[in-house]
Design goal:
With 507 residues, the chain is α+β, with helices and mostly antiparallel strands. 38% of the residues lie in helices and 14% in strands. The protein is built from 18 helices and 14 strands. The longest helix has 21 residues.
Length: 507
């Protein structure tokens, strides 16, 4: 009964903003707009959730899987588990010494509001039996990171004697902030551990592999003389694209293993500058790698063309094995690259799309160039073909249109190099299946967006080009058609075309 009442109280709280039920609470003050939940309905939902998790007589585990004690678990010849509701300080280290083969450690610092609510519910449940020390947390306005780092260091210190030599410690952090990363690096060094491998998965957090130190790791406080400017610049050059400030800070801390590394400095004395909003880039981009997004796409296409079929988990794991550390791609990018090239031919398996087979794409590329030339001739332009395949529409000495066809969503080779000569509009023609990936790359890289505007690039899908060739008869219709089929559909009225009624498209 207490558990059901507690669940009803939590579900009926007015602290969650209206229409954002998944948003974590940041304040104990009720928002301006919240949904008032019926308490009785919340109680019924809690009962249904508790009783309907498993059909009658079924259980997710069997009794044989559960070990009754540490001794039984350690001496068991078959796989088993033991759930302990106790702190690490209460573990018997002498009994477990050098027995643990692997540890999975989740760093999930509680938010102040969630913490306060937990103490409130605990006070209601335990009454006078509430431990006195818990009441102090009700007055905390924010998480004390110094206290958390000390607690994390104590936990690592308790764990190191019980693990076997060389046993890995996998650490998972949540959120995109750098504070959890700093806490892990600081605490690991206090326990003679170092970060052997790691990857970033923004905005989900970081994944780290800790092992016993076989080399001297930089201790907290050994900050580079340049304040970390060189470290952050190196991270940006290796990623090849502007990076969110929070992510850049976390990458710099993990790359240097300096917990006290200062945050990125974008003053005039630094090689770093604000690219747009929270994104940071370099003032002098010499020796920069190709954009990370392009490299991930190219590697995805290569893996699919040379091997397969793949499972989604195997393909994602392979990509993250190739792009770890400072080159870690965000999951949204990885999923977009996979979606742009794969089809599901059998349940749970992915294969390269048939239309993306190299031979078919080469033939389609030649067809697109030929059709662009045909359309230009129909509209009265002198059509030329440049070395490399660009199609140019000319009118005397004026070149109002240039068309470049590609079968990928790679943008670096087209936008980051000197733009091809053209007096007017530059058009990049891409397969429709790459449209979402192109839109994502433009959204995550402010440099590319600026260059698209500055050099007057527009994007045309293969299917839309075919529509233009079938419908355009006059030059006056061309500009309207160029903006008719954007990379990402928007729920708004489209441009009115001659002889065509305006229509509305949904996302």
């Amino acid at each position: 009964i207490e558990a059901l009442c507690l669940e009803a109280l939590h579900r009926s709280s007015s602290l969650t903003p209206y229409e954002t039920s998944s948003e974590r609470l940041r304040s104990l003050r009720p928002p301006q707009r919240f949904l008032e939940i019926n308490v009785w309905t919340a109680l019924e939902e809690a009962i249904n959730a508790y009783t309907g998790a498993y059909p009658a007589g079924e259980s997710p585990v069997t009794a044989a899987d559960l070990a009754p004690s540490w001794e039984a678990l350690l001496s068991s010849g078959t796989p088993a588990y033991l759930l302990l509701n106790r702190s690490l300080q209460e573990l018997d280290r002498e009994q477990l010494e050098a027995e643990v083969k692997v540890i999975l450690f989740e760093v999930r610092p509680p938010e102040a509001s969630f913490w306060a609510l937990s103490i409130l519910w605990a006070t209601w449940l335990w009454g006078p039996d509430l431990p006195a020390g818990l009441r102090g947390f009700l007055s905390r306005r924010r998480l004390d990171w110094e206290w958390y780092r000390k607690s994390l260091a104590a936990a690592f210190h308790r764990l190191t004697p019980v693990i076997r030599a060389g046993a890995p410690i996998f650490v998972v952090t949540s959120g995109s902030g750098a504070a959890p990363v700093r806490a892990v690096v600081h605490s690991a060094q206090q326990s003679d551990l170092h970060v052997e491998r790691w990857m970033a998965c923004p905005p989900l957090g970081y994944r780290l592999l800790l092992t016993g130190s076989d080399r001297r790791a930089p201790k907290a406080g050994e900050v580079p003389s340049d304040g970390g400017d060189a470290a952050y610049s190196d991270v940006l050059r290796r990623r090849g694209e502007p990076t969110h400030r929070q992510l850049l800070e976390g990458l710099g801390v993990l790359e240097t293993e300096v917990a006290e590394l200062p945050a990125p400095d974008t003053t005039t004395a630094s090689d770093l500058q604000v690219a747009e909003g929270p994104y940071i880039w370099l003032r002098t981009a010499h020796g920069v790698e190709p954009p990370l997004a392009d490299r991930v796409e190219a590697q995805t296409a290569e893996l699919l063309a040379n091997e397969g079929p793949w499972t989604t988990e195997h393909l994602i794991g392979t990509l993250y094995a190739l792009f770890a550390g400072v080159s870690s791609p965000d999951p949204e990018l990885v999923n977009a690259c996979i979606s742009a090239y794969t089809t599901t031919e059998a349940p749970g398996t992915l294969s390269l799309r048939r239309e993306d087979e190299p031979g078919r794409r080469r033939a389609e590329l030649q067809q697109m160039r030929a059709e662009v030339s045909t359309l230009g001739t129909r509209l009265g332009y002198d059509v030329g073909r440049r070395l490399g395949g660009d199609v140019v529409w000319k009118e005397g000495r004026h070149e109002p249109y240039l068309f470049r066809c590609t079968t990928t969503a790679l943008l670096g080779p087209h936008l980051l190099k000197a733009p091809p000569p053209c007096d007017g509009q530059r058009c990049l023609i891409v397969p429709g299946g790459r449209a979402a990936l192109v839109a994502l790359k433009l959204r995550r890289d402010p440099r590319l967006r600026e260059l698209v505007s500055e050099h007057r690039w527009t994007f045309i899908k293969f299917r839309h080009l075919r529509r233009m060739i079938g419908e355009i008869r006059e030059r006056a219709e061309l500009e309207a058609y160029l903006g008719l089929d954007p990379m990402v559909e928007q729920a708004s009225a489209q441009l009115t075309l001659p002889g065509i009624e305006p229509r509305r498209t949904e996302v």
